[in-house]
Amino acid sequence: MTEKINSDDVSNILRVMLKRLEAMEDRLDTISASCNKMDTHISFIEQVYYKLSAPLDFLMYNIISPIMNTTMIGSGGLPVIKH
Predict the structure, then answer these.
(1) Three-class secondary structure of residue 30 per DSSP
(2) Three-class SS state of 79
(3) Residue pLDDT, tens place only, 20-78
């Protein structure tokens, strides 16, 4: 035997579905705001890296690496591998 659904049941089901849909929309808004903040942070880090990578590479390969090679070879340690 099949149970019939009346209009009150349908209204209740729709009300519950609407509440759940609204809750999901709220969660998506929160996630979206968080993603926007993370995108801004990632852009900032990329800009800083872009500006500092060349000077840091120059410093590392032309000043620090030769000093480390000389110091480590002179002290009997392993030399730093140049890239």
Answers:
(1) helix
(2) coil
(3) 999 999 999 999 999 999 999 999 999 999 998 888 888 888 888 777 776 555 555 55
Rg (alpha carbons) of the chain, rounded to whole number = 31
pTM summary value: 0.48
d(CA 83, CA 73) in angstroms, rounded, equals 18
| Residue 48: both structure tokens together | 């800083």
Kindly give, in sequence order, each residue whose CB lies less than 8 Å from that of residue 61, ignoring residues fewer than 6 positions away: 82, 83
Distances (CA, A) of 70 to 59, 62, 64, 73: 16, 13, 10, 5
